[in-house]
Structure formats: C-alpha cells, structure tokens
User: What shape does this take?
Amino acid sequence: MSLPVRVGTLIVAFLAVVGGVIFVVIHYLLAGPPTVDYSAGVTPNSGQTVNIMLQEDAQNTVSNHPDWVSYFIKDPKTGVWEHTTLFKVPAGSTINVTILGYDGCTPLRNPFWGRVTGTAGDVENVNGKPVSTLDSWGSCSVAHTWSIPSIGLNVPVASPPTLKENNNLCATSPCTSGPHTTVTFSFKSPTLPGDYFWQCRVPCGLGYVDGFGGPMQTIGFMTGEMEVVS
Amino acid sequence: MAAKSGPNVGPEPNHAIRLGVSWLVLAVAADLLIWFVWGPHLPPGGMASQADGQRFDIKVMAVMAAPVVVFVLLYFAYGLVVWRHREGDDEDGPPIHGNARVQTTWITVTSVIVLSLFGFGTYELYNSYGAGAGEGPAPIYNPPGAELTAAQQVAPWSPGKPVVVQVIGQQWRFTFRYPQFGGFETTFLAVPDNQWVQFDVTSIDVIHSFWAYQLGVKADANPGVDNVAYTKPTHLGRFTVRCAELCGLWHGAMFDYGRVMTLPNFQAWASASNTQFASVTKLLPPYATTYDPTVIPLFKLSPVLKALGVLGAGGGYYPPNDPTQP
Assistant: This one.
C-alpha cells in the first residue's frame, strides 16, 4: 500500500472516530427536553404578567418510560403540550400558573408540604376555590406538588377527589380529557436571572425504593428548571 | 551519610547539631505562625462552642504535626544539598548500619505524640459533648438537662434544658421541628444564643447529612434513625446549612441559612411560628424522634385512600423485597 493511501486511510479512520464521539456526545449526553419560552415579548422587571400552563399525568405514554408519572408544559406559541419540565420566564414578573391535575391522589410523605407557600396570599385556587392547606392523608386531595425551594414556593396540586374519578383517570398523555382538577395561583418571578429548580414532593416514583427514584430524579418528568431571564 | 577522608577533604561537620538547631528554629517558627497567625482563621470559626472547640483541636493537631513535618522536609533538603553526588567522586558511600538510638528515639517520640493526641481527642469529645458530631440515638456525652425520648422532648422548654430541634432531611430540603414549642415544623432554622441546642437528625427518604457549618455541627440524617448532636451558639448572626451527603439530582442546591437569635427573640419567633403553622401542624404525625408518617393513625386516612392504598407513592415504605412495582 502506497504512503498516500495509508495516510488517507489513517485520516479517514481518525475522522470516523472523532465523528462517532461527537455524535454520542450530542445525541445522548447533551440531548434533553426542550425549553418552553414564556419570556418572548415581555419586558423583564416591568411587572408584566405571564400565563403559564402545565399538566400532570399518571403516565407518560410519549416517552420511553410510559409508566412514569410526568408533568407536561404547554407551548404558548403552538398550543402543543411538550414533554418537558423546562421553561423560561422573564425576571420580576407576575407569573400566573395553571396546572391541570390529571393524576390521582397519594399522600405526602411529609404532610408539612400540604401547606401553600410563596404564592400571592399563600393560597392556590382549586377549581376556583381558594385553599391554603391540603390534608393529603385525611382526604383524597393531593396528587403531586409543584415546589421551587429557592424562592419558598410550594403548591400541593389537587387531585380528583372521588374513588370513581381515581379509578377512571386519563391513560394517554398528554391528557385532553378525563377527571382532573384545575389549580391556579400566582407568584413573582425572581428579579435575578438564573436557573431555579423545581420538584414534586410526593414520593411518586413507583417501583423505586421509597418512591423517590425514577421520575422524581429525571428532568422531563417530575422535576425541572425555571430559567429566569432579564 | 558518606564520611570521607583524604588530602582534599576537610573534617566532617557535625550534621546532627546543624540539623537539630535548624529544626528547632524552623519548628518553633512554624508553631508560632500556626497558633497566632493561621489559627484564628481556621474553620469552622467561633460562632458556637463546638465550632470554637474544633478550631482549637485543629490548632493543637497542627502544632503537634508541624515539627514532624518540618523535620522530614528539612532532613530531605539537607540531604539533597550536603550529601549529593559531586563530580569526580565515584567512591561508594559507607555501608549503612542500624542505629538503635535513633530508631528508639523516633519510635518513642512519634508514639508519644500519637498517644497524647488520642488522649487529648478523647477528652475533647467528652468535654464538648461529642464535639458537634452525630452521636447516634444514645449519646455518650450529653450536656446537662438533655432529654432523649419523644415523651420528654414534647414537654415545654424551660431554662436549663437544651432546646430540641428535630432536623428532617428530605429531597432536597431540610425542615425543622420544635417539639418543645408546640411541635410546629418550618423550613427556617433558628436557635437561641447561649443555650445548649440538641439536634435530633433524621431523614424521611435517602441518607442526607446535616451540616450547620459555623455551629460546628455535622450529623448524618438516616431514615429511621435519630442521630443526636449538640452545640451551644455563642454569637448572634447567620450560619449556613448544607447537605453533606450526595442525595440525588439536586443535592447541590440543598443549601440554606439559619440564624442565631437572642433568647427572647427566639421565643417570640417560636411563638409566632407556632401560630403561623397551626393549620399544618395538626396534619403532622405525632412527634417522634424519627419521622415516619405511616404512624399517622389509620382513622385519619380517607375512605378513598383506604380503597386505593398508600403503598410506596403514598408515603409508605416498601416491604423487605423492595423495590417492587406496586
């Protein structure tokens, strides 16, 4: 084999390996759920209002973990429910949140998180009625929570209350029909830009020790980040 | 060491004297620097008796270790400079034989240092009631008035007793329960100045580690275990609270601040918090030294939950064969 052929073979082999590494890094390691942008057209720190919408389902049939509980976020531009838990809001704004609770009730490991904190008036509206504390053990009232610890926000997301509803939950996500609650509340986004993680506090990782693995530890399911931009 | 003789070689200097004098000067200088210059800035500071004790202990250990380190480094440097191979000198060095006096001295001195540090450390653990570390559910070293059972801890606080704070680790936040002040739970850690504080550290999910840095307290938070640690704040102000055990996705964000208050301010804060959290306090399980919500009496469980079951996701614990898919 001549020297040019050997050199050419070496270069091709080298490029193939480099290309493979780049593909693996981009496709597997850097791949993640999309970020839904609620900041477009809003001036940060102007006190303007942003409306964001989420839903929580008992399953995620659009992922490779169909039996994991999951949040979805509605894209304000397309109206499509995105399989993601990442969203972007402007700093210093009033964030009006609507969460559709399609999952059934499960008690909180720590009933302390049944108290609403960090929202306007420390209340949430469950199907239009203001509530400040939910008893997740004494009634079928909580499915998950939506909590941003660094800003003191904790909202127990109400569940459909009856046994009949809990036995007939929506089974295909993102849900568009079926028993559910509508939870609304408002909070002020931080004035400082940054990434603020949020999580669920109900141990809803079925099949994992103490319910705290799987979807509880995976972005795109029961935890994510609120990106605050200025 | 090579003892040489010959027409061009002078008398061998007294290396022991040279080394000894140099070591003495350097060791004393190092110890003075450690004690007076570096020492006051050593972690974890002096905000509490336990923190101050830990700083003192680190200073003592550093002062004891410095002469040994100085001797090893000095001997190494001296050997490189004085006994290095010189050009034209191809003569073998003299054979090395054991030196019983040097060996005995080395073993004796290092043994004395280690054993005296052992004695010192044991005394310090006793003297500072565990030095701020978690002592488990049955502490050996307890300050006066310490109460270890739940029945004792729910009795209202009175002067002379440690203020009991139950630390509850959970992904990814610590919460704090005050059984002597009505049993409320909060996300804010406040402790009074100049009072013994008893932390009963536990977890409701995975293993965490409660680290109140400036208070000199660090105790593992294990589910189902009451890990008791003591401290006595001596300065007012803010301190940091971190989790020191990798506990999941957002472990790095498990960070917050606490505050040391005057006793009257602390009592006022506790009273106000008890009122503020009354609506959720009544939903909490009865106070226990470990935190297991499955002890919530079954009569509190709603009929729907009784029908649906609360296994796993419901706050219950999986059976011994876990993990299982319910």
Summary: The first helix of chain B runs from residue 15 to 38.
